[in-house]
């Protein structure tokens, strides 16, 4: 550090209201915040604006909000074919639907969904329409006289939505939808003994 005599020499010549200033070097901690801030600003500018490694905070918030809105609308009670297709690619929803399916539906449609007492749900043939909304409607209302129970009151909308997502996780968007001939329960299993 400076000794008192050196400091005397470093007093600046001007005087305001009798107050004089030393002419000292800026302290290191102060210089470090200055150079640090400049280095940070350059890094920040390169990272976000020049090379676009990360989304700028404003844009990041915007993207997050859009994702949240999409997820909320996909989960809202107003279902569309679009939202059901979206959910059919959402692992959590599909897993939940699979659990419901195995517990309630697999006894007739088989765990593989390939059909036994009830028809296959993985082929292109549908009895009551093959869009996600039509399938949701079939499940909700059932076809009592044909042996398909009414699931609406049993499962509620949330679980039906998840089951539909699970079924459509086995399908591709845009694949053909064909009208199935009337279903004869067990026809898949009976095929080998059809001659009897
Ligand atoms: C007791 C047996 C049984 C159970 C349990 C059952 N189904 Fe069915 N399901 C059927 C039968 C039989 C049909 C055919 C109805 C017809 O001929 O219209 C059918 C038809 C369907 C269809 C219409 C397929 C098409 O081609 O349009 C869907 C979708 C379906 N079931 C989904 C489900 C789901 C999801 C569950 C569980 C929540 C379930 N089923 C539980 C017997 C069952």
UniProtKB/TrEMBL annotation:
<dbReference type="GO" id="GO:0020037">
    <property type="term" value="F:heme binding"/>
</dbReference>
<keyword id="KW-0812">Transmembrane</keyword>
<keyword id="KW-1133">Transmembrane helix</keyword>
<dbReference type="InterPro" id="IPR036909">
    <property type="entry name" value="Cyt_c-like_dom_sf"/>
</dbReference>
<dbReference type="GO" id="GO:0009055">
    <property type="term" value="F:electron transfer activity"/>
</dbReference>
<keyword id="KW-0472">Membrane</keyword>
<dbReference type="InterPro" id="IPR050597">
    <property type="entry name" value="Cytochrome_c_Oxidase_Subunit"/>
</dbReference>
<dbReference type="GO" id="GO:0046872">
    <property type="term" value="F:metal ion binding"/>
</dbReference>
<dbReference type="InterPro" id="IPR009056">
    <property type="entry name" value="Cyt_c-like_dom"/>
</dbReference>
<feature type="domain" description="Cytochrome c">
    <location>
        <begin position="92"/>
        <end position="171"/>
    </location>
</feature>
<dbReference type="InterPro" id="IPR032858">
    <property type="entry name" value="CcoP_N"/>
</dbReference>
<dbReference type="Pfam" id="PF14715">
    <property type="entry name" value="FixP_N"/>
</dbReference>
<dbReference type="InterPro" id="IPR038414">
    <property type="entry name" value="CcoP_N_sf"/>
</dbReference>
<keyword id="KW-0408">Iron</keyword>
<dbReference type="Pfam" id="PF13442">
    <property type="entry name" value="Cytochrome_CBB3"/>
</dbReference>
<keyword id="KW-0479">Metal-binding</keyword>
<feature type="transmembrane region" description="Helical">
    <location>
        <begin position="29"/>
        <end position="47"/>
    </location>
</feature>
<protein>
    <submittedName>
        <fullName>Cytochrome c class I</fullName>
    </submittedName>
</protein>
<keyword id="KW-0349">Heme</keyword>
């Amino acid at each position: 550090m400076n000794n008192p005599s050196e400091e005397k020499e470093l007093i600046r010549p001007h005087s305001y209201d009798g107050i004089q200033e030393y002419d000292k070097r800026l302290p290191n901690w102060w210089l470090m915040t200055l150079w640090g801030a400049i280095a940070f600003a350059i890094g920040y500018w390169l990272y976000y604006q020049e090379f676009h490694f990360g989304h700028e905070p404003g844009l990041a918030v915007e993207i997050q909000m859009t994702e949240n809105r999409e997820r909320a609308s996909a989960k809202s009670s107003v279902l569309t074919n679009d939202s059901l297709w979206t959910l059919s690619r959402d692992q959590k929803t599909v897993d939940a639907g699979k659990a419901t399916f195995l517990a309630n539906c697999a006894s007739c449609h088989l765990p593989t969904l390939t059909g036994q007492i009830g028809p296959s749900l993985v082929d292109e043939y549908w009895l009551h329409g093959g869009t996600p909304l039509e399938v949701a409607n079939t499940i909700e209302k059932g076809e009592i006289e044909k042996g398909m129970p009414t699931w609406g009151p049993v499962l509620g909308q949330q679980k039906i939505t998840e089951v539909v997502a699970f079924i459509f996780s086995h399908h591709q968007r845009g694949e053909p939808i064909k009208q199935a001939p009337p279903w004869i329960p067990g026809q898949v299993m009976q095929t080998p003994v059809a001659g009897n």
